[in-house]
Amino acid sequence: MSLDSVFFFIIAAFALVSAFMVILQRNPVMSAISLIANFFCIALLYLLLKAQLLAVLQIVVYTGAIMVLVIFVIMLLNLGDETRLAEKFDMKRIAGTVLATGFLLEMLYLFTTHAGQSPPAAQAAQIGTVEAMGSVMFTKFLLPFEVTSLLLLTAIVGAVVLAKKQG
C-alpha cells in the first residue's frame, strides 16, 4: 500500500467522522463547525487526487463563503429552545432510513465492483491543474461560462435594486 493510499484512508476516515458529527450534534453551531472540518477533508482529498483548483475552490467557496452564510442563518434563527425541534417517529424518519440504507448499499456495490479502476497517474495529474481547467473552460465551455456570468450579474443588479427600494 502506497503512502498516498494511507493518507487517503486517514483523511477519508476523518471526513466520515466529521460528516456523522454534522448529523449527530445537538448544537447547530457545533454542527456547522463539523461541516467546516468536513469541507477541509474533502479539499485534502482533492489535493491527493491532483485536482489543485478544485481543492482551492472547495476551501474558498464552501468553507469560506457558504459556511459564513450558514452561521449567519443559525444566528438569525436563534435556535435556543431545542424542545420545539424534537421530532417524533414518523414516515419522514422511515423514508430517510430507507433512502440512506439504499445509498449505502449502492456505494458498497460500486466499491466492490469497480475497486482499483482509476485513470493513469499521468493523465490525472494533468486534468486537475488550473491550466487544464482554464483552457477547457475558456474554449469548450465558453458559452455556458459567459451565460453564467450574465446570470450572476443580473442577480447582483436585482439585489441592488431591491435594496435601494427598501432603504
- Number of DSSP-assigned strands: 0
* Individual helix count: 7
Which percent range describes the beta-strand content? under 5%
Number of structural domains: 3
> Could you list the spans in which at least 5 consecutive residues all have pLDDT below 50?
none
Mean pLDDT equals: 82
Instruction: Report on the biggest sheet.
Output: none
List the secondary-structure elements in sequence, H or E: HHHHHHH
Could you tell me how far the N terminus lies from the C terminus, measured between alpha carbons in angstroms? 62 Å
Overall body shape: globular
CATH topology of the largest domain: Four Helix Bundle (Hemerythrin (Met), subunit A)
- In the CATH hierarchy, what is the architecture of the largest domain at level 2? Up-down Bundle
Q: Helix/strand-derived class?
A: mainly alpha
Gyration radius from CA atoms, angstroms: 21 Å
Give the full name of the CATH homologous superfamily of the largest domain.
Answer: NADH-ubiquinone/plastoquinone oxidoreductase chain 6, subunit NuoJ
* Fraction of residues in helix: over 70%
CATH first level of the largest domain: Mainly Alpha
